[in-house]
Amino acid sequence: MANITNTPESAGSNLMARALREAFYAGLVALGLFVLFVGLKTDQNILNELILVQRWGLLAIFVVIAAVGRFLSVAYIRPFLARQKVTNAVTGLLPDSVATRFFRVPIVVVAAVIAILLIFAGNAIAAALPAVLVPWVTMIRALAIIYVLAFGFFYFRVYIAAHFNTLAIIALIFYPPVMVYFFGYQGSLKYVDNFGIQILIYVMLAWGLNIVVGLAGLLDLGYVAFYAVGAYSYALLSSYFGLSFWVLLPMAGIFAALWGIILGFPVLRLKGDYLAIVTLAFGEIIRLVLINWTAVTKGTFGISGIAKASVFGIWSFDVSATNNFAKVFGLPMSSAYYKIFLFYLILALCLLTAFVTIRLRRMPIGRAWEALREDEIACRSLGINTVTTKLTAFATGAMFGGFAGSFFAVRQGFVSPESFVFLESAIILAIVVLGGMGSLVGIAVAATVMIGGTELLREMTILKQIFGPDFTPELYRMLIFGLAMIIVMVWKPRGFVGTREPTAFLRERKSVSGSFTKEGHG
Amino acid sequence: MEYFVQQLVNGLTLGSIYGLIAIGYTMVYGIIGMVNFAHGDIFMLGGFAALIVYLVLVGLFGGIPIALALFIMIIVAMVMTGLWNWVIEKMAYRPLRGSFRLAPLITAIGMSIALSNFIQVTQGPRNKPIPSMVSSVYEVLGISISLKQIIIVVVTAVLLTIFWYIVNHTPLGRAQRATEQDRKMAALLGIDVDKTISITFIMGAALAAVAGTMYLMYYGVIVFTDGFTPGVKAFTAAVLGGIGSLPGAVLGGLMIGLIESLWSAYFTIDYKDVATFSILAIVLIFKPSGILGRPEVEKV
Amino acid sequence: MALETDTMTKDPILKVDHLSMRFGGLMAINDLSFEAYRGDITALIGPNGAGKTTVFNCITGFYKPTMGMITMRQKAGKEYLLERMSDFEVNRDAKVARTFQNIRLFSGLTVLENLLVAQHNKLMLASGYTVLGLLGFPAYKKAAAQSIEQAKYWLEKANLTDRADDPAGDLPYGAQRRLEIARAMCTGPEFLCLDEPAAGLNPRESLVLNELLRSIRKDTGTSILLIEHDMSVVMEISDHVVVLEYGQKISDGNPEHVKHDPKVIAAYLGVEDDEVEEVIEQIEEIAVAAPGDTPK
């Protein structure tokens, strides 16, 4: 692999020979990498002793995949990509010709027919088929719907790009009713809660962290600490003092912001990786204190039975309460109402975050943050107090983390230190960077792809059909998440949206290319 | 007094392991200015390689002398993790070299998540205990020193000497130092920069593999999440000593080991990590570039 | 000497008294005293490594001098001891702005945004430290509109109006230099320090720069201190020249005076002390041969 130079090939046979040679090396390397970890598995026997289980077949599959993949890559994919070098500047996703080749009108008509047929007659068809084929029907339906939607996105891409915000907000507002319409109250839970709320929490967290990392250019690896502060403020104050969600939501934000200032103040003169490790350390300290200060936090057991939020105190979601939402409106009892309420609540919090961020960017403080990311010394030469500027960025980011934390507590009804590990910080940071630092839309897309994508994996019952009933897709969730992070970064180092929107303009608003923006050194 | 010295010995052992891992962080940082977050998981991978080799050896030749077994474990683990880190650098980090700073960091975090989950998927999520390999304990002046501790400290000292020699007295070390100073200039002077960086990754991984083997031998158990905590501690050690400085990494490792064992001995064990991280924060507040790190001069 | 009479009539805006700066064992500046006068363009020149930039960094608060006093006297009469202030206060309170030898623009922000960032403190106040601005109070909107007007004024002056919406990093070198000066002027300084503003400029750009500096002085009354290597710029536009060598002042006066100072000639040509006489003779010969020919 290493010692083969990419000289232009003149003859096809030459290319083939090289592809075969590289495939052989790739197979060899794969054999080396996986021989111990895939070829052998450590397992406990009945005596609880470790024994080795041999899996040479699986190892062979790995090696063959590596070799064949390398062969195809060298022989076909790379020459193909070289021919397709001119990418579409508008979508920035795929070479235009590939996209137009992929989205053809006849195909979309067929897909639409299949999708409609399966949506409305899917159950009848499934009943007629043997049980083995049912997941396949579901998958075909999902693929057909995705294809039709993707076609719509592609066809109207210019319009969508121009009106993205309005369209996205409208789509999100109508999301729960549409889900309820298609899947019923009970069936919609999965889509509203697991997908909707879950993704929106990460969107909010990533938007909060974006202020610190994306705008001010301060690398914070312990953001989850503020999330934890928010969650525990709500959990503790509501269970000890019985305060309501609407009182505690702002308080959680203020507490988190205070912690941001307390933690930020001593460390903000540190630079780059020193700042990163200290923020990581603070994140870990807060988690360790939550684990060990059992008298207050109940340690690893966590705090359970956290009070639910109410609709501004008017309607409650407690089953026993007289002003229970379902009772008041004479609806059948279901937990779906609460989830739908939570969905709108987190949507509102997200919109608040976005609104404040957009506003702040156009204000002196927001411009100072971005200037700080570009050049701290120049900032100081212009009379900007960089310490307070950094602190406000830290505190503002922390505040949104605190809001998200209290929402998290109210949604789960349970908090424990388990939820605030470093991995969470890493995921949030990854979403910010994958989305394109500073870009709210890019970050929202990244959160949807990364969180939604891994959630989707849980739903893929089809995989059980292929790999057998013991196969648990959840197990592979984080493995795929990690690999996806690597692939997206190598593919687009600036993230999905690499350009920056200027905050003011004289004649026309031109996006600033990512090659000019800096990523900060603090 | 004996109690104190006993804790010193324990801290020294622990610190040696951290120091070995910290060198990998600090070398990679020195040469390409990137925090290789996956390094902790490379250490864990080394531990697992050693574990599997041990089980193979015991399975094939029941009564193999423990010294020979340990030697083979170390060698195979070094080769294995070296190969892994070589491939990782080539596939995931090299395309991003010279790109903006956060991209390789995120890739490394992704790699860390992928590696630990890869081991979870292929080797199972449970703890992997092995019977104690080395159990002799010596009493010296009222302090009990186990053979394990002696092995760890001696192996670390030998490796560090070899390593120090390579970096300071061989053409390879010279190429590494040159690449560290100025990559472009080094390339112009005929140094194969890609190869030098690859070798740096392989060397860092090999040291981490030794640390992994020692960790397995010392604690007798390993699990797929074991990359994280020692990894973060070693990273802390590297930063504490001044990231980019090799003696700093060793010093930082020893300090962290000592802080941990002394804090656990005299205060509460629950808060030992809190103590470590707090001391890191306090040191950095007063010395923002670590203990042996070169202070960053603000060029105006 | 001409200098004596100058001091009598002119009003010093910046006074550097016995300034010393030591880096480890190196004495970068050794007991330096000079004055810059209000309304003047003062040039600080000297061979490489003479300590010019160090003086600048001491004045603008980026270095803390080992010894000495730097006094800035504003038009209203208020005095500031710059060596006691931190870098951002020097700009915010004492009204001293600066540029950098290696241009430090916010390259990912547009040209206009660069100029808006420079008006940070004014706008912060108008936005009620962000709170009122966030709530959409009209006072901030008015201040924001004014700041754009101010930026437009400087864009016009620096001849950058056409590039206002482009990223600063995209500008050609000469334009970046001008933008940095315009940005410094947007902070509303009384005293402007320019670190080698003409470095790397071609002769045309250099002329445009001279024009800009002259108009800054004329229209805003801002006093200027500049470090320069390019003698043509120095002789062309400065009213007062201070020459440094090895951290010490070797000459001080108007350009004509400095140009003929044997010590300066020696410093620039690098001759031994006993050869100075010889050099002076040579120069006089040249002056006789080509009268009125100033070095360009």
Explain this structure.
- The complex is a heterotrimer of chains A (522), B (300) and C (296).
- Chain A has helices spanning 12-34, 56-83, 96-102, 105-128, 134-155, 157-162, 164-215, 224-241, 245-267, 272-292, 294-297, 325-328, 336-361, 364-374, 376-381, 386-412, 422-435, 440-459, 462-467, 477-491; strands spanning 40-44, 50-54, 303-304, 414-415.
- With 522 residues, chain A is mostly helical.
- A two-stranded antiparallel ribbon of chain A has the order 1-2.
- Chain A is globular.
- Chain B has 300 residues and is mostly helical.
- Chain B has one domain (2-225).
- Helix content of chain B is 73%, strand content 4%.
- Chain B contains eleven helices and four strands; from the N terminus they run ααααβββααααβααα.
- In chain B, the strands form two sheets. Chain B has a two-stranded antiparallel sheet. A two-stranded antiparallel ribbon of chain B has the order 2-3.
- In chain B, β2 and β3 form a beta hairpin.
- Chain C has 296 residues and is of the alpha/beta class.
- Chain C folds into three domains: 1-95 and 189-259, Rossmann fold (3-Layer(aba) Sandwich), CATH 3.40.50; 104-188, no CATH class; 265-296.
- In chain C, the strands form two sheets. Chain C has a six-stranded mixed sheet with strand order 6-7-8-3-9-10, with helices on both faces.
- Classes of the chains: A mainly alpha (522), B mainly alpha (300), C alpha/beta (296).
- At the A-B interface, α1, β1, β2, α10 and α17 of A face α2, α3, α4, β1 and α9 of B.
